[in-house]
Amino acid sequence: MQHTEMTSCLTVLLLMSWSLGGAQKNISWEVQRYDGWYNNLQHHSRGSVGSRLLRLLPANYADGVYQALQEPHVPNTRQLSNAVARGPSGLPSQRNTTVLAVFFGFHVLSDILGTEKPGCPAEFLNIRIPEGDPVFDPAGTGDIVLPFQRIHWALETGQSPNSPREQTNEVTGWLDGSSIYGPSHSWSDALRTFSKGQLAAGPGGHVPRETDGKVPMWKALDPSTGQGGPRGIYDLGNAWGNENRFLQAISIAWFRYHNYLAAELAKDHPSWSDEDIFQHARKRVIATFQSIVLYEWLPALLGTPVQTYAGYQQHLDPSLSPEFVAVARMFLATMVPPGVYKRDPSCHLRNVSSSSDPFPAVRLCNSYWSRESTGMQQEDVDDLLLGMSSQIAEREDSIVVEDLQDYWYGPLKYSRTDYVASWLQRGRDLGLPTYNQALERFGLEPLQDWANFAPHSQQKVLEVAALYANDTARLELLPGGMLEGDSPLFSAIILDQFVRLRDGDRFWFENTKNGLFTAKEAEEIRNTTFRDVLAAVTYSQQAELQSNVFVWSEGDPCPQPQQLTAQLLANCTPMTVLDYFEGSGAGFGIIIVVLCCLPLVSLFVAWIIAILRKRDFKKLQKKKASVRREVTGEALHAMEWHGPKTESSLVHIQLQADKVLKVLDGRGLLLRSVNLKAQQRVEVILSSNKGNKALLLKSPKEYDLVLLFSEEAERSSFLGKLQDYLKTSCLELHVSEMKEQSLLKRAVTQEQRKQILETFFRHLFAQMLDINKTDAGELNFESSQKAKESLTCELSRAEFAEALGLKANSMFVDSMFSLADKDGNGYISFREFLDILVVFMKGSSEEKSKLMFRMYDIDENGFLSKEEFLRMLRSFIEISNNCLSREQAEQVTESMFQASGFQDRDELTWEDFHYMLRDHDNELRLTQLCIRGVPEVFKQNVHNRVSFIKKEPRGTTSDREDPNQGMVAHCMDREVHELRKRPGRKANQYQLHLYTEAQRKKYQQNKVQQKIQEFKRFIENYRRHIVCVVLFSAITAGLFVERAYYYAFASPSTGIAQTTFVGIIISRGSAACISFLYSYILLTMCRNLITILRETFLNCYIPFDAAVDFHRWIAMAALIFSVLHTAGHIVNVYIFSVTPLSVLSCLFSSVFMNDGSQLPQKYYWWFFQTIPGMTGVLLLIILAVMYIFATHHFRRVSFQAFWITHHLYVLLYVLVVIHGSYALVQQPRFHIYFIIPALIYGADKLLSLSRKKVEISVVKAELLPSGVTHLRFQRPQDFDYKSGQWVRIACMALGTTEYHPFTLTSAPHEDTLSLHIRAVGPWTTRLRELYSPESLAVLGKLPKLYLDGPFGEGHQEWHKFEVSVLVGGGIGVTPFASILKDLVFKSSINSKLMCKKIYFIWVTRTQRQFEWLADIIREVEEADRNELVSVHIYITQLAEKFDLRTTMLYICERHFQKVLNKSLFTGLRSITHFGRPPFVPFFDSLQEVHPEVHKIGVFSCGPPGMTKSVEKACQQLNKKDQAYFAHHYENF
Predict the structure, then answer these.
(1) FRET pair for 840, CA 20 to 30 Å: which of 145, 402, 1437, 1515?
(2) Where are the beta strands (DSSP E) in 1029-1074?
(3) Residue 1459 above 60 pLDDT?
(4) How many CB atoms are closer than 10 A to CB 791?
(5) Which residues of 357-370 are buried (b: 16+ CB within 10 A; e: fewer)?
(6) What angle do CA 158, 161, 167 make, to 5 degrees?
(7) What is the separation, in whole angstroms, between the first and last Cα of the chain?
């Protein structure tokens, strides 16, 4: 006991020291806290803000925990409201209680009760409106539901039956004036002026100031006008003090009373400080308020005196009960009138003006949250207070006026609701006991029979009884108490609560032990009535007010003229339903469209940049080599019409002196030549309408020329010049006119000419090969005119050259055309073409050689001179881009003459010529003339006759095959044999043994077995890739599912899942995936780490070579989830835009505060005025830019744009961090995924940066043919690399810091590093210019480079296979240059190598394209003493394998190889082939040559088309149960 008293004393001392703060010398008492804490020194939180309500009886929940009773277990609250409370208004109070007592009661409740705050997460007990309700459902839809949100509860309750849900009180539970001063110290400070102890007043000083947001006043919408905002809302001590004008008037009265007392104290004690005055005035106001409530208002309300105060009872719990919360409000509601009089001190009533007629009183239903009271004068408040003091309240029965029952201000989007139904529902929310349980609790007789209720409400009782199925045990507290005659239960509950509040309050004014007042001061306070307060704060005198303003008695001043009824007052504004999204649909849709168009905008920008880059690149190329123009002399310009579906183009027309009309494009390049020599009469047709601008020049044996001039004068000028030109050339001009439409229809366009030629070739080959006419595509005779045109048309020299795929001025075309054009008219007819084609397609070798002899016997003397033979050879060489010099061609000629024994002759007969080709009879027999435009059906037929790809077993010939197939097989065998061994050396016995002896047994597999084998091989080749992709995908999917499940079912109850279920699980699940993907994508960019790890055992499990592909895969997955994340948030934004503020304040308590307005933020606020929204939009813009510029096309067109935009990843990560740091939905989680990859990437980047800072001196720079720049530079110290690896270089001399990747062509054993860089883009072209002799002469030195690397890739694994095949195309040969040199070097020093054989296939357009590689191959050939390397060179610029020109080059090449043991074209011992490499037979032969090898490595680098061909060949052979081809490729 002593310990308790010591603790209490210590607490008092601490509280006094805290309360006094500055130790005000005129404050000698313990200042009561604003928040209600420490009133009870043993139970500090009793009565404090946020304390729980105290249940008088066990909670009555459906589940015993928190679920409220609902239909059908209890009646519908609207039906119950109509049954209990519906009735006529206008019956006066039986105790003559005034309206002032009623609204003063609501003010008292606002001082001790704050249960209006909705609970979080938002839970709803919506009120279903019965179908056909005259107020809420007049249309009889039956689907009207009034929203009803459950109030705030203690979150630690409602978890089990032992701890059912308990609601909390958001204001202090003491009669401590919190409705005047606020429930917290900060609230009170916001109401003060801190001058002379006054509360802040508005203009005039009679009313508080309008709220400015510093005080969280409730700002519900005015249901009668729909107005909202702070206008007309005053800063008061209670947030709901402005609920209606009458409650607001009483709050203002107490505001005035405080300032009145403060002014009096300041006058009496001028030396007191502001705090002194304020605390003295506050102490006196609170005491007066306590006295009036307990000893004046409560007896008047209940008609029962309150027992005498017996002193403070420390152990009494005064906490408010949920029974009291509901009962007090319902009891007062039954006494609320439909309107309130306004009167002045002279008892004159003031009419209330309306839009139509004046009314005698202010209508209650139109006064909720009224915004019309702004600028309210003293008289307005005074008149309301005086009017309420004289007006008799409604009778204390169950009837509630329609202003509350039908027109109470509504929740959420509904402007009206039912007060009675809402509080009946609130009773169920509070878990109130039944009526009989409450009666027993207060010692009253339980209800046994419905007839025991008051006789005057018998009809209501029957209706209620029917709703409860005549079961009195089910009757709830509120409807039962309302049906009582004199409300004994309600009165008992209310009286009990106020007595407990008084007796348990340590700061009660009558408690002399608290040091607040002396006995005399307490008695003086006890004698102060509300009449005294009103007299002090209004302009009325005490004589003008009755002694007890809460009761009006006969003889009191200013009686009311009559009891107000609804019929005497203005009509209530009917209910309206707000649409939160009204007017937002278009804007919301536009934002979605704009977000969807971001990639298109980025694409457009990229397209513009690409055009600019191409233009700049063309300018750059023009600096290197000027374009040869054909424009000579005066030219006329016009637009050439190409056809109805093709856009017209600008052309220039030149009239040449040799009867040739030339058509040039806008750049001056020749498009076509129209030969007028063969035309005796030139036909021109002019248009006669549409401005007379069109002109058609007929070209009988070619397609017509249609010109469109800008005006008729220009056409006339052209026609005049044409007439003069033709007259000079002795040619006749025939001019006619027709309508432009007919003119264009008559013209033969280039497309139509192509169709004619296609038919020409179809019938040509059909007749020559005896193919079925249906295969030839015979035209039906409905279009016989077109068929006739096709078969009677003749080819011009240009069309003949195009058919052969050559230039019109080439020697071969000239010779062939002259031979075929028998009539010499400058055109080749169908019959002429057929004659020469039959020889090449079906003729014998003698016939073909004789035809060739005639072609090049220019002087037709029957002999072929050495000069003519040289001309023939050079005409063949033309197709290989003049790959041989004249000296080489002469050397070949002399060699062939000498080998045939004709070294002493200067000319040959046909017999001599044919003898010279004797060793190549088979090749010549298979020779044909390759024609462009031949239908595929004929090409396939011809190829089937001459193909060397498909190998048949020797000695076997199918009966259905061509008789020449044996020769074909023999030719193919020789080809394959040449693939296996290199000429000029003794064949390796090991190879010969394997080729001739070791043969694997081949199994014939059906398609299903092949597919299974193909699948097995696919798994074998890509098992590491599959495992990594599956693992990564599983992690990503797991993260999505985990987050989606968490927010759907397992997250803390915030209510967000119930609000936006689909949106939240999509956005949160995808957010987790994005965090993971965007974090770990950094690991694919750690080039140094990958290079190191790929040399470890981890390379057996992780495909480090696929880092770039994996980077793209992760990026695409991240993009998909980013789109999903955006879609989820778009759903969220829409839902949040239509979600009331009371719910949003639960979901986002740190962002929104529920102020009662219920209006949510608009959609644009979420997008552009929040950190997540704004950063999200910026992230979408960045992603759109990065992804578009990272596409293959734009990366090739403008690498610099890709380089710059891809460095936006830094900003991307910054925005992602900011995006999640706002913690709008959840605490930031991005760092969980990001930290580790970021640290690894940062370390890798620092390593690269440390290298990039070092300048590397260039030792040698050489400009090689085909735009290749060879750079040799110093090898940095400790720079270790492997053959096949690559580096990134930058050259600051170019004015940019961008780095470009290139493969090293030097070998690891060399002292310097070398690169071969082909100029194909702006950067590489500028680099070539920088190291050109001209630039170096200006600079005076070789510009330095910055180096980053080396980095690993798949090609460096060539040594891990016993047999490796290297396939290089174009500049893609660079990694193999290093590998070849490295292999030969290691072999020369007898280094132990797993690799026993390397086949190098070099695919190039011409041998001149990369002559530098030929030098490297030459070095390899010289150093390769162990015959490790077999090189095969394929020149692809030549025509097909058995084309006449290719065959002759093949003959020359084989002759040169035989005589000099080196290639005619390359000078190498390596075999040179013509055409594209046959990968399938080549790989197939490797399986036979190396039968003991189970796995062959294939490494290709080049254009995508080539690598795809290699991949298909590998896949095709992997279907067989033989050696497995593991393909590694790299595209450029």
Answers:
(1) 1437
(2) none
(3) no
(4) 17
(5) eebbbbbbbbbbbb
(6) 30
(7) 91
SS3 471: coil
φ, ψ (nearest 5 deg) of residue 365: -65, -20
Tell me the backbone φ, ψ of residue 556, rounded to 5 degrees: -70, 155
Q: Return all residues near 499 (Cβ < 8 A) that are at least 6 apart.
A: 306, 307
Grouping H, G, I as helix, E, B as strand and the rest as coil, residue 59 is: coil
Three-class HEC string of 1293-1331: HHCCCCCEEEEECCCCCCCEEEEEEECCCHHHHHHHHHC
Mean residue pLDDT across the chain:
80
Let me know if 165 is exposed, middle or buried by CB neighbors in 10 A (0-12, 13-18, 19+): buried
Contact between 565 and 358 (Cβ < 8 Å): no
Of 380, 397, 372, 296, nearest to 340 (Cα)? 380
Query: What is the per-residue pLDDT across 1189-1248, written as a single tens digit (0 to 9) for each?
Result: 888 888 777 777 888 888 888 898 899 888 888 777 777 888 888 889 889 888 888 887
Helices (DSSP H) in 269-341: which residue ranges? 274-292, 298-302, 322-333
How many other CB atoms are there within 10 angstroms of residue 64's CB atom? 14
The residue written with tokens 């009239």 in the block is: 655
| Confidence band for 493, pLDDT divided at 50, 70 and 90 | very high
Task: Give 305's DSSP letter.
Answer: P
Residues 6+ apart with CB under 8 A from 318: 46, 47, 173, 174, 500, 501, 502, 503, 504, 505
Residue 899 pLDDT greater than 60, yes or no: yes
- Give the model confidence (pLDDT) of 1308-1338 as tens digits: 888 888 888 888 777 888 888 888 888 888 8
Query: By C-alpha distance, which of 955, 978, 976 is closest to 965?
Result: 955
The phi-psi region of residue 1502 (left if phi > 0; otherwise alpha if psi is between -120 and 50; otherwise beta) is: left
What's the rounded Cα separation, in Å, for the pair 509 and 526?
9
Q: How far is CA 1399 from the centre of its chain?
A: 47
| Selection from 264-278, 1181-1195, 1457-1471 with the highest mean pLDDT | 264-278
**How many CA within 13 A on the CB side of residue 369?**
26
3-state helix, strand and coil shares in percent for the chain, rounded to the nearest 5: 50, 10, 40
- What is the pLDDT at residue 980? 39
Q: Decide: helix, strand or coil at residue 662.
A: strand
The listed range with the strongest mean pLDDT (625-634, 848-857, 1003-1012, 1178-1187) is: 1178-1187
To which residue do tokens 């295969």 refer? Answer: 775
> 53-87 pLDDT, tens per residue?
999 999 999 999 999 999 999 999 999 999 999 99
Q: Are 827 and 701 in contact (CB under 8 A)?
A: yes
Place of tokens 């309306």: 354
Q: Which residue has the tokens 């308590």?
A: 1149
Distance between CA atoms of residues 218 and 221, nearest Å: 10
Residue 551 bridge partners (DSSP) = 97
Instruction: Please give the torsion angle defined by the CA atoms of residues 1441, 1446, 1451 and 1453, in that order, rounded to the nearest 10 degrees.
Output: -100
- Within 8 A by CB and 6+ apart from 286, the residues are 32, 175, 176, 177, 507, 509
Query: What's the CA gap between 1033 and 816, in Å, rounded?
Result: 63
Q: What are residue 1304's phi and psi, to 5 degrees?
A: -70, 135
| DSSP H helical ranges for 86-224 | 99-112, 178-181, 185-191
Nearest to 187, CA basis, from 174, 173, 200: 200
Of 602, 384, 397, which Cα lies nearest the Cα of 486? 397
Copy the structure tokens of residue 823.
């009539």
Query: For the chain, give me the number of helices (H) and strands (E)?
Result: 53, 29
Going by C-alpha positions, the residue among 399, 335, 337 that lies closest to residue 362 is 337
Least confident of 894-898, 920-924, 955-959, 1393-1397: 955-959
